[in-house]
Specification:
There is one protein chain. With 180 residues, this protein is of the alpha/beta class. The chain has 8 helices and 6 strands. It has a 6-stranded parallel beta sheet with strand order 3-2-1-4-5-6, with helices on one face. Strand 5, helix 8 and strand 6 form a beta-alpha-beta unit.
Length: 180
Amino acid sequence: TTTPRLATELRHYVPEVYINRNTASEKMVETSLKALELQPRKNKLAGEGFIKIGYFSGSITHNDDIHMILPSLVKLLTEYKNVQLHFIGELDIPKELTPFQSRIVARPFMKWTELPACIASVDINIAPLEDTIFNEAKSENKWVEAALVKVPTVASNVGAMKEMIKHNETGILCENTPEG
């Protein structure tokens, strides 16, 4: 299967398009279960510590995606002093976030075997994607990786995220609007 927009665009190049969905390997599931066992869960409603929002960008191709949600991130950090952002991967952190640098944790790209523990350490996973044909073809990996360690995902309503996430059930889908 594929999204209608992607299929329409790709028909200009090839007559048929097949997408082979990603799956979690046995090793990824095993690593995720181990990370989940080792991660203590705190009661955030009781006011324990920061609410940690994680963005696992991976490659440098996600700078535009983070800029798209920048107004929402600034608003969150301004209104809620108990919110902490975790950026993992290749990403240029926008200068607009400088006033909040004490609540920003940045880590470089890491081996996939380290990723489950890192994802398990946050409370919310975000997966913003600009609505482009390139992003329409991306997989739902970020959602799958977070789900394996029981971390909810807030994602753009684009491509595979739109196809795979059941809004308010298996994640939260957001429209890409200036209001965030």
